[in-house]
Amino acid sequence: MIDHLIAVLNGDRSPGVYQLVTPINTEDLVTLSQEQGARLFYIDGTAVKSKADFLQAVAKALTFPDYFGHNWDALEDCLTDLDWLTDDRLILLYEQPETFAQHAPSEWLVALDILRSTVDYWHTHDRSFSVFIKSSGTDLVGLDTL
To answer: What is the helix (H) or strand (E) element at residue 123, kind and residue range?
Structure first.
């Protein structure tokens, strides 16, 4: 599985929203990302229980501008802008998403849909944006694994 992970990090495999099942700690993943020319951003989902928590966590992780409106439309707007980031390959690592998924399941599905559309958007604009979701719980339905 590490080969598939490296292939996404270095651009040899299509960007996507992936469930990260490869046994790798966060620090090693940051280092590996840098070695492969990708920049990794991190969300600790243990305290993300609501839409507001999620929006704040993404804004903080990706250093959104002050004008971020803290709603779904504003999230999508910022995620499809990212002019303040100069890297060509971006990785968003989201650990412990089950906290959000269990506390606000419908909002979790909206967030997941926005993350997927963001990946698709950047894929058509020659920039790589992938999301790695690392869960200690059961498999997340509908996600490819790395």
So the answer is: helix 105-123
Write down the residue that tokens 């229980």 correspond to.
49
* Element holding 19 (H helix, E strand): strand 17-19
Ranges assigned E (strand) in 38-124: 39-44, 89-95
Edge-first strand listing for the sheet containing 128-134 = 39-44, 89-95, 128-134, 17-19, 144-145
Q: Are 17 and 115 in contact (CB under 8 A)?
A: yes
The sign of the torsion formed by the CA atoms of 111, 132, 121, 59 equals positive
| pTM attached to this predicted model | 0.91
8 A C-beta contact, residue 100 and residue 107: yes
CA distance 51 to 70: 9
Residues 6+ apart with CB under 8 A from 122: 15, 80, 90, 128, 129
Is residue 146 exposed (0-12), middle (13-18) or buried (19+ Cβ within 10 Å)?
A: buried
pLDDT digits (tens, 9 = 90+) for 69-87: 999 999 999 999 999 999 9
